[in-house]
Amino acid sequence: MREGNSMERLIFHIDVNSAFLSWEATRRVSLGEPDIHLIPSAICGNREKRTGVILAKSIPAKKYGIKTGEPVTLALQKCPELFLASPDFRLYEQSSHAFISIVRGFAPVVEQVSIDECFADMSGTHRIYPDPIAVAHQIKDKIRDELDFTVNIGISSCKLLAKMASDFEKP
What's the whole-model pTM score? Predict the structure, then answer.
């Protein structure tokens, strides 16, 4: 980006890392329970209603080859001690709202594209935030410090490349 050119687009793609699992882990830790990030764990659908698939998983669960979208029965074959939690969509909505509110405090235009990701159009903010990488760190740190979960942020001049950048190295 050329210095001082306010006409160039500056787009951030901000994505919560393993959102459903992160939000559940944050709630559990706030209640004094163990951090499910640290053990093989997953959020899954209802096995009795035949919607028993993995919706989100921890990094330790990934080491067992557990994948998002796979049946819970298969995941339990790979890792019999896998800790399973049911989804809590009210919690997810509250966490999503809190995350988006923080982003809106930095960006003049925020487009939420799913419960756990958004685009922030930072175009024209170079006088307020002269260093895009520094403000990305400020956003990331504020979310971590206030909400206790992490995000990835990709920065580019267009949405596609910003999304690719945020997906590049997770978490």
Answer: 0.86
